[in-house]
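W.,

You were right to be curious about this one. When I first looked at the sequence I had no strong expectations either way, so I just let the prediction run and decided to look at it fresh. Below is the sequence, 402 residues in total, followed by the output.
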Amino acid sequence: MDIELYLPRIVDGPLSSLIQAVPVVLVDGARASGKTTSASRLANSTLRLPQDLALLQSDPLQVLTSMKRPVLIDEWQLAGIEVLWTIKQIVDADPTPGSFILTGSVEPESYGSTYPLTGRSARVLLRPMNRREKLGAGNEVGWLDRLASGEIFTTNPNGDRAELDLLVESGFPGAAPKHDPREWLRAYASTVAERSVAERRDPERVGRLLRVLSELESQAVPDETVWRAADINRETLYSYRDMLARAHVVTPLPAWETNRLKRITSYPKRQLVDTALALALAGIDANELASNPTLAGRYVESFVVAQLRPEVDAAGGYLSHLRTRGGDQEVDIVIDIGGQLIAIDVKAGVNPTPRDARHLSWFRDRMDARIDASVVLHRGEATFELVDGVWAVPISSLWSTS
């Protein structure tokens, strides 16, 4: 993206606030998600790695102290953990907020107690663009705020229909202008696999695991199902999965945890960082989704989660799902913000019925005091109350600004 044509990102506000509050801000996220573009707007000087790696390594302390702050180090992980120790030395001597911005595509193995910048830094996660951001509305009032005010239920009784074609439109800025983004997305996955060699992983197995996960999108299945389908063993799955998670390519939706409900599954829902990426790797197009409602349901759910993640991140909340063992009761998405809950079921159809509210009604009966809203998101155009306390709302409301 050209900075002159910059599309506001939801993370821009939190990022600007952190730069005014702490000496070092780390911007993590999947490769090609727009980290450099967003961070560059707030920096006064920049080191781009690997291009400037030799300069940085020649005398890290002298180079970094001579640059006008905030200093952006792009893809900092290519310089190794040593650069963080140099930054620690600098900010310990001068803890001025907004001294350094570090962008990285692969998290270090740990942000634990031995991490040099503990107590001196904060981090934000930049995800691929959601549709609201792609429409240029990333800095406008978001869906969660409109839901909290009740505006969602009164100002958008008839929204736009969320067509299945939207699912194959990637949130990676680099894929957007391509004639066939699937080629770009498959090449992206190949690059992820090839770069895994640096961490002593087999790129063929990494690629195979990504394809299996793309076919299991939004399914809560045991680890054994995954490693058998990928033709690898358990230890390899855990090693490769953790590597892909640190690269922000695999973003599972964890199971919600509570001691108030019994017999809840602990399996996460398998999800890749971008729904279009999952579809490209699985070889599924919009026509196949239209002809297979069950398949469409899984990927529509993944798409909705991807729309919500940046907003939930900015609100300091958490996303999860709930499923009882045996699958008798299921809530597709549980958003927890400061202990208050928003329960969401996602329907790929356009005409939800009261029956579609049954899982949310069950959940409200058991968690009523903590439920802020219960919503069935659907691909149709109408907003209305399905049953007492459960609303049907168009998926398009996630990016609508009116």
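Here's what jumped out at me. Residues 131-398 form one domain. And, maybe more interesting for your project: The first strand starts at residue 24 and ends at 28.

Coffee later to discuss?

I.
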